Automatic annotation (TrEMBL):
Belongs to the radical SAM superfamily. Lipoyl synthase family. This is Lipoyl synthase. Signal peptide: none annotated. One of its GO terms (biological process) is protein lipoylation. The gene is lipA. It comes from Hymenobacter daecheongensis DSM 21074. GO terms for molecular function: 4 iron, 4 sulfur cluster binding; lipoate synthase activity; metal ion binding. Keywords: 4Fe-4S, Cytoplasm, Iron, Iron-sulfur, Metal-binding, S-adenosyl-L-methionine, Transferase. It catalyses: [[Fe-S] cluster scaffold protein carrying a second [4Fe-4S](2+) cluster] + N(6)-octanoyl-L-lysyl-[protein] + 2 oxidized [2Fe-2S]-[ferredoxin] + 2 S-adenosyl-L-methionine + 4 H(+) = [[Fe-S] cluster scaffold protein] + N(6)-[(R)-dihydrolipoyl]-L-lysyl-[protein] + 4 Fe(3+) + 2 hydrogen sulfide + 2 5'-deoxyadenosine + 2 L-methionine + 2 reduced [2Fe-2S]-[ferredoxin].
Length: 304
């Protein structure tokens, strides 16, 4: 028996696996009310009747209840399937099948029926199209202006991948504000926007400014950026002619997307607003729930 015991292997106790870092808990300041009310129902009905897409729904925007309740919405043209696979975005990725030449008319008529004072139009990326969808963009803006001459328009346009001729068409319909979001700081582009380039987005903003437009961009916070990187991004945007900047908290849309690295306190958002103005931006909308089109009607009158 003793000999048998001597042949048994000695089992060393294993060290406990390190505990996984706790995920940051969503703070109270990010809680929003569910969308309700007659104005919300009216917008919901018009969107469904006209078979329209909205980034409010596709992007899981936390302000949908507030904005739709006020009778406004951000319309998404050129379908709801994007050719890009950004790791933060809730919009479906794939091969788009929709190219509806009647869409500009339907969007313009819906805006007229809603009596919208300020319309925001955005789109998915359509990299497979030679003109990146620029002709649909242009016609949509032109028809909105024809049917609703007093309606002001912001277009939140995608990265045209240096197709500057397409950019010229996109921004020439008569819109008052042209927005293009850089989304994050330069060091995080490969992680957050793998099919985009930081410098190329800055050039797109610069070219838009040179065309005489009121320029706007947005950054999501809480992806792992540092304060110094945020300051650098603001300086880069100012150097490339940006007028208006929106800053908001990144929220993970599904478990397949990037996790939130940090929930940014409202005090830091307030600091970034003051810092952006100090560095030369003309207007900064900054807060945890701010999104690109949040309070967009205020941005029309920013001097250029």
């Amino acid at each position: 028996m003793d000999d048998l015991l001597l042949t048994l292997p000695i089992i060393q106790p294993q060290a406990a696996a390190p505990a996984a870092p706790a995920k940051p808990r969503k703070p109270d300041w990010l809680r929003v009310k569910l969308p309700v009310g007659p104005e919300y129902a009216k917008v919901r009905r018009l969107v469904d009747e006209h078979k329209l897409h909205t980034i409010c729904e596709s992007g899981n925007c936390p302000n949908m209840g507030e904005c739709w309740g006020a009778g406004t919405a951000t319309f998404m043209i050129l379908g709801n399937i994007c050719t890009r696979s950004c790791s933060f975005c809730a919009v479906a990725t794939g091969r788009p099948t929709e190219y509806d030449t009647d869409e500009p008319r339907r969007v313009a008529e819906a805006i007229q029926l809603m009596s919208v004072k300020h319309a925001v139009i955005t789109s998915v990326n359509r990299d497979e199209l030679k003109d990146r969808g620029a002709s649909i963009w242009h016609e949509t803006v032109v028809l909105i202006k024809q049917l609703s001459p007093t309606t002001t328009i912001e277009t939140l346009i995608p990265d045209v991948k240096a197709n500057w001729a397409a950019l010229d068409v996109m921004i020439s319909g008569g819109q008052e504000v042209v927005s293009h979001n850089i989304e994050t700081v330069g060091s995080l582009y490969r992680l957050v926007r793998p099919q985009a380039k930081y410098d190329r987005s800055l050039e797109q903003i610069r070219r838009t400014k040179e065309a005489g437009k009121r320029t706007k961009s947005g950054i999501m916070l809480g992806l792992g950026e540092t304060k110094d990187e945020m300051y650098q991004a603001m300086d880069d945007l100012v150097a490339n002619g940006l007028d208006i900047l929106t800053l908001g908290q990144y929220l993970q849309p599904t478990k397949r997307h990037l996790e939130v690295a940090e929930f940014i306190h409202p005090d830091l958002f307030a600091h970034y607003r003051e810092e952006g103005l100090r560095r030369g931006l003309k207007y900064v909308e900054s807060g945890p729930l701010v999104r690109s089109s949040y309070h967009a009607e205020r941005h029309v009158n920013v001097p250029i």
